[in-house]
Design goal:
The structure is a single chain. The chain has helices at about 40-50, 105-120, 165-170, 175-180, 185-200, and strands spanning about 5-10, 10-20, 25-35, 55-60, 65-70, 80-90, 95-105, 135, 145, 155, 160-165. The two termini are about 25 Å apart. The model has no long low-confidence stretch (mean pLDDT about 80). The protein is about 25% helix and about 35% strand. The protein is globular and about 60 Å long. Helix 1 (about 40-50) runs antiparallel to helix 2. It has 5 helices and 11 strands; from the N terminus they run E-E-E-H-E-E-E-E-H-E-E-E-E-H-H-H. The relative contact order is 0.16. The strands form 3 sheets. Strands 1, 2, 3, 4, 5, 6 and 7 form a 7-stranded antiparallel sheet that branches. Strands 8-9 form a two-stranded antiparallel sheet. A two-stranded antiparallel ribbon has the order 10-11. It has about 200 residues and is α+β, with helices and mostly antiparallel strands.
Length: about 200
């Protein structure tokens, strides 16, 4: 299961992709964009919402540049990629995808619309957020769960209570939706979701 979480983070936004790929390894990618990001958060949100390619957040390093880029229909039609890419100054060097998250274009459009709703809240009085809020991945569906998320943090009274559940898994909505859609669930996730369902029964 793939998820995007878009929320205000001080004077910017935090876009968390879970899972994503970081240096070739699956992981959660929290990307914080300040309100002064080159290209503007409104432009980023509009590009995501419209499914339009966009490059932003360019930084210079010794012998290379690092850019954030949204690539629609990459690597396949209907799938967009948000990536942090390192490009060499010399034409013969390799382009390296340091971090990337591939999602259906519809999810990126929803993320862009959420971002556009948040931007007007980011006035000059918005508090700075120099450190990212820690999150864990929900063991039932891999959604990012923050301390500020509307979720249950503990369920079950047995020897192995479940921590860090998202709201939808804690209330049983995730399991019901997957069963109705006849979506295959991996063994580990099924065990977590069924434990929750039994605890709620």
């Amino acid at each position: 299961m793939q998820h995007l979480d878009v929320r205000q983070s001080g004077n910017g936004v935090l876009i968390t992709s879970s899972p994503a790929e970081i240096d070739g390894v699956p992981a959660s990618w929290p990307l914080r964009l300040r309100n002064d990001v080159a290209g503007g958060l409104n432009e980023v949100g509009a590009a995501l919402a419209a499914g339009r390619g966009h490059v932003f957040g360019v930084t210079e390093g010794p012998g290379h540049r690092t850019v954030l880029a949204f690539l629609p229909d990459h690597p396949e039609e209907g799938v967009g990629t948000l990536a942090r890419v390192r490009t060499p100054d010399c034409p013969d060097g390799d382009v390296v995808f340091e971090r990337s998250a591939e999602r259906p274009m519809g999810l990126w459009a929803e993320a862009g619309e959420s971002l556009l709703r948040i931007v007007p809240l980011l006035g000059p009085d918005a508090p700075p957020a120099d450190e990212l809020e820690d999150c864990r991945l929900c063991p039932g569906c891999y959604r990012p769960v923050y301390e500020s998320s509307s979720s249950h943090t503990l369920i079950g009274a047995g020897p192995l209570p479940l921590l860090g559940l998202c709201r939808l898994c804690a209330e049983g909505s995730t399991l019901r939706s997957l069963r109705q859609a006849d979506v295959p669930i991996d063994t580990r996730q099924r065990a977590v979701l069924e434990t929750v369902a039994a605890a709620l029964a």
